[in-house]
Amino acid sequence: MQRTQIWPDDDSLRRSIIEERLYTDRRIDRVKLILESLAENSSKEQVKTENLTVEHIMPQTLTDEWRAMLGVNANEQHEKWLHTLGNLTLTAYNAELSNKPFTEKLIYLSEKSSFALNQYFRNVSAWNAYEIQRRGQHLGEIAVQVWPR
Fold first, then answer.
1. CA 108 → CA 35, 50, 105, distances in Å?
2. Where are the beta strands (DSSP E) in 30-131?
3. What angle do CA 137, 36, 115 make, to 5 degrees?
4. pLDDT single digits (tens) 46-105
């Protein structure tokens, strides 16, 4: 059986970045490569990424504090947005971040991180479905510059 590969148009690429579940155990390296590639286009200063790992900003296990931040339908929101690119980043602080509340994660992401894509969090005060989609849109805009059609 022959597989046909297509190069998506800009709108399809943006939509996929916002909505598709990209993170799986088999795709961790691919997600890391995508984030590294987007970061390279965001800054002239390059960070060594060998020691960085993929971090779920909204954690894989919800706490009561995270449920409160997600609001109504927290479990459904968690299921839908958990593994999308908008909710993923790279960090060397993965162990420290774990399931911590967003306010604590924000300190690491916006102040301690030198990874270009994490500078985005300097202007974010909450993390929910809307913010995950908004970051996905931001990453989608970078992606269409990195991978032009």
1. 17, 18, 5
2. 53-56, 88-91
3. 85
4. 778 889 999 999 999 999 999 999 999 999 999 999 999 999 999 999 999 989 999 999
